[in-house]
Amino acid sequence: MALLATWRNRLTAGPRRALRFAMFDFKDIEIIRSVVRYGGFRAASDATGLAQSAISRRIRHLEDRMGITIFERDGRGVRLSATGRRLCDEGEVLVAQRDRIVEELTQGMMAGVVRLGVAETMTHTILPRMLTTLGHRHPMLRFEISVDTSDQMEQALKDDALDVAILLRDQAPRGIVLAPLPPVSMGWFVSPEHFTLPSPAGIEDLVSLPIVSFPKSTIPHRQVLERLSSGRRRPATVHGSASLATMLHLVQQGFGIGTIPHSIVAAWPHAMLREIEVLPEAVLPPLEFGICYDPERNEEIGRAVTLAAIEAATD
Predict the structure, then answer these.
(1) Where is the HTH lysR-type domain (predicted)?
(2) Which CATH superfamily groups domain 115-183+288-314?
(3) Which alpha helices (DSSP H) does the chain contain, by range?
(4) Which of 31, 53, 62, 75 has the smallest number of Cβ neighbours within 10 A?
């Protein structure tokens, strides 16, 4: 057992010991770069103020530690070996990353990945302008965008699965920052080649046809049902879809009439949909969206996204 333990220690200690002795640091990379940049040890010494012997000694010790040849020496001077060239190239990447990190930390630059949740209505309206603005102001930010329903994003914010979300205000969880966006107006739309309705149309006219709306679990779906079903002789047939593109296609192809934001129909003119003029009893309330984030976890990025979103919404 003692012999087995001895060999196990040797086998596991060997790689750790080799790795420790083979390590190099940023100073090593900078010295190698100076030799390459200035064309030799003497020129590097003159440019950096380091003694030529110190430069030569450091590189020789690095070669010994790593068991490689960094510079090939001949009568005309030195040049990088193939291994040395790779070390220099990889080292350039490390130095650039170090400089970037230092700059971000010392100059207050925002960087990293932002998990952004967005209701689909916003993807066709403010999202492109908002992200373009953020990209110009904070070029080191990267976005992971999730398009989902407001109730799903509400839970994701609670679970810290999203950093910022643009969702319906009524779905915003408690304890977060909520910045309202301008309301999004809604309308009834139809493909004229498939259906003809009186103008203005009443609720009985609307419920005589299949209706395509938001998903069943959402506030806009419930609002449509409240308008159409209360005290009516005929129950409404309301189909739900989480995809606005699907809603547009279904209405365009004559599957039914749709409750769709005006801004979405305006963004899809090729759908050739016409708004149905309706009586006051059938007018749909606007969608009230807001930007949400947890101030304890995401104050800085939350403020930045909120500002860009409000600017995009008011252009």
Answers:
(1) 24-81
(2) Periplasmic binding protein-like II (3.40.190.10)
(3) 2-22, 26-38, 41-48, 52-66, 82-107, 120-123, 127-137, 150-158, 203-206, 219-229, 244-252, 262-267, 295-314
(4) 75
